[in-house]
Amino acid sequence: RNVEKTENMAQDIATARQGARVLGLGSVDVRSIQSLQSAVDKCVNELGGIDFVIAGAAGNFLASINQLSPNAFKSVIDIDVLGSYNTLKATLPALVASAKKHRCDGKTPSLIGTGGRIIFISATIHYTTMPLQTHVSVAKAGVDALSASTAIEFGPYGVTSNIIAPGPIGGTEGMERLSRKEDTERSLKMVPLGRWGTVKEIADATVYLFGDAGNFVNGSVLVVDGAAWRTGSANPGSGFQYPDFLMGGEVVSGVKGMKQSKL
């Protein structure tokens, strides 16, 4: 992330609670374990440890397989899958230490809160797959598998690992980059709850998994999408008519998140 934006956001977050200390570490590249390890070491040294981790780095654009070069495919895998793995590897020692400190037996309330928890941000696209999102479907399936493996390997240490899979969230960069204005109204009607989700609702899901209510939740996928994935039409690129768009060899247009790569 941009250094200035990161530092400004840190200052904004710090206003949420008097006396809070927030580190804004910009220009961290999740594809580089060295870059992440440096950031983690700084957090541990200056804040005393790490209790909670959110692995949410992602890259996305609309492209058919015919448009998708190996390099373009690799770029998404590197950010989503390798980035999530690097985040896990760099923070695991701190998470194990936190889990030991905050161990919960499910009966006695912890006097010092919870800890030793990681959330991976995934998606619902790969549940059914969809055109123009092959790269993301593969990447998010990998992230889901990584979270599940973490849950069973580090659960015995008290660490919990879960997935939050957001659906269409209004006012976010993803919605702006991956949908056309003319398709928005039709897609909205296909969300069973009849509206887009909100950023707060994703935040609430995070609080649930990190709080006491999530003490025994491990290896789970929490879908927050108003059942949108079950109708399929609220997914990125759903406005491009299938299969005519693919059969006609057309190029994705009208959205900010598009790739011009060729085979």
Instruction: Estimate what percentage of residues fall within beta strands.
Output: 5-15%
Neighbour order of strands in the largest sheet: 1-2-3-4
- β-strand number: 4
Query: What's the overall average pLDDT, rounded?
Result: 90
Distance between the termini: 30 Å
Helix content: 40-55%
Low-confidence parts, pLDDT < 50 over ≥5 residues? none
| Morphology call | globular
Along the chain, the helix and strand elements come as HHEHEHHEHHHEH
The biggest beta sheet is recorded as: 4 strands, parallel
* Separate helix tally: 9
The gyration radius over C-alpha positions equals 19 Å
- The helix/strand class is alpha/beta
Task: Explain how this protein is built.
By secondary structure, the chain is an alpha/beta fold. 44% of the residues lie in helices and 8% in strands. It has 9 helices and 4 strands, in the order H-H-E-H-E-H-H-E-H-H-H-E-H. Strands 1-2-3-4 form a 4-stranded parallel sheet, sandwiched between helices. Helix 3 links the parallel strand 1 (52-55) and strand 2. Helix 2 runs parallel beside helix 3. The radius of gyration is 19 Å and the shape is globular.
In brief:
By secondary structure, the protein is an alpha/beta fold. Helix content is 44%, strand content 8%.
